[in-house]
Amino acid sequence: MVKIDNIELGEFPLLLAPMEDVSDPPFRALCKQYGADLMYTEFISSEGLIRDAVKSVQKLDIFEYERPVGIQIFGSEIDSMIEATKITEQTNPDIIDINYGCPVKKVACKGAGAGILQDIPKMVKMTAEIVKATKLPVTVKTRLGWDESSKYIVEVAERLQDVGIKAISIHGRTRKQMYKGDADWTLIGETKNNPRIKIPVFGNGDINTPEKALEMKNRFGVDGVMIGRASIGYPWIFNEIKHFLKTGRHLEPPTIAERAEVAKKHLEMSLKWKGDVLGVVEMRRHYSNYFKGISNFKPIRQKLVTEMDKEVLIETLESIKRDFVLTEV
After folding, report:
1. So what's the pLDDT on residue 159?
2. Is residue 102 annotated as part of the catalytic site, yes or no?
């Protein structure tokens, strides 16, 4: 049984990665329904929380059915991160997660996210202060290092464990790599198999099939895997991996009608949550995966990613259920 502090997550938990403008409540609801064991919110700016910025505060919203759920915060100033931790704790998540992995320029170049990988002593000090500031278990998401010459993750994990974190998720790339090339799980495995490490180690990066999840479990001994991009528009991946790990067989993939129905449900929740404009626009990144591999679908996909009228979009998704049903026979 894998546990973060006293939170039981099962034998080999599957975690939903925190993804900006993706891991919102509508998407998390679907991932939970289809097998995610632990989910994290989109990352939240500590400065935004302190200033009471609407977008940051809205990201604090979590729901009982999501539990266990972690809220992820990021920032470059220790005092701001302590204050944000206290604000976050009041919303009663199960876990507070620190983002030390985001590679995007506007975050990393200000010394937050993966930017802090250039200052490991500050990273350790910030983590220690956050742990002291909350009664909740604190976890960390990070990368192998800033670049090829600074992949210190094995030592970093030890030092973060020593100041009190309860689990670590490691993305198998450096900040410099962004999302390019293949994720290197070797150092994730070395971290997990370091005899000094007692906390759960979760691997992240390129888990896009059940076979890949099984391979990483067997080769590197990680306690679980965190899934990001492969879940976008495809929440079924969690149950598909679980079924494969348990039986060695593949679950039947969702039919086109099921994909359209879940995409419609996702859109409706997104509209309710974000309003008619953002609700439409932020769904667009999901459609390609919802309908991946369907022949002759390009004109409909084009419509889904350009249309602004919610009623037209809902009717389009309904028509996919009707019109594409025969292609599955």
Report:
1. 97
2. yes
